[in-house]
Design brief:
mainly beta, 6-stranded mixed beta sheet
């Protein structure tokens, strides 16, 4: 059974940082591209960042470019999202999702809530 469990969300002040983690199990993590998708209150899903299977190439939405860094540790079956210089508009539930295609949400975790507020 595919399992993706996010952690690391919480309340942070504008300008602060958080590091999200996603523990993967039930599938060969190291051969799959992965991505982070978020959903802000009252809005649709937004692809935040994606990374290839080997971890050598990451892509970012324009809204987070230069502030967020995606990475992975295939030995630990874990995906990360380092979020710096957080803004109020980054407030959302963040999901760890398996696969490269932005529209492929077949396998995703339950999400972790990030709230950016003073």
């Amino acid at each position: 059974e595919v399992q993706l469990v996010e952690s690391g969300g919480g309340l942070v002040q504008p300008g602060g940082s958080l590091r999200l983690s996603c523990a993967a199990s039930g599938f060969p993590f190291s051969i799959f591209n992965m991505k982070w998708v978020r959903q802000a209150p009252g809005k649709g899903l937004e692809l935040v960042s994606s990374i290839n299977s080997g971890g050598s190439s990451g892509h970012y939405a324009d809204s987070v470019k230069g502030r967020f860094t995606i990475s992975r540790d295939n030995a630990k079956n874990t995906l990360y999202l380092q979020m710096d210089s957080l803004k109020a508009e980054d407030t959302a539930v963040y999901y760890c999702v398996r696969g490269a295609l932005p529209s492929d949400m077949t396998y995703r975790g339950k999400g972790t809530l990030v709230t950016v507020s003073s």
